[in-house]
Specification:
Peptidase S9B, dipeptidylpeptidase IV-like protein, mainly beta, Peptidase_S9B_N, 4-stranded antiparallel sheet, single chain
Length: 67
């Protein structure tokens, strides 16, 4: 996976590999706020997990039953 920006890419520690060993969750500010995204291990975006006029501060828990 690669993330680019003309201005700034904020580095973070919000990378979480799921137990299925096929997906991971990554936090990014590419849409203006720090949101969470579910990706396949090959980097392909599966879907955006959070959205709104707020940022994700931290991940408290991950429900791995549905994704």
């Amino acid at each position: 996976m690669e993330e680019k920006s003309d201005t700034l890419v904020n580095l973070n520690e919000d990378l979480h590999f799921l137990d299925d060993q096929q997906h991971f969750i990554w936090a990014s500010e590419k849409d203006g706020y720090k949101y969470l995204y579910l990706h396949k291990n090959n980097g392909e975006l599966k879907r955006q997990l959070t959205k709104g006029n707020w940022v994700v501060d931290k991940i408290e828990a991950i429900d791995q039953k549905t994704h």
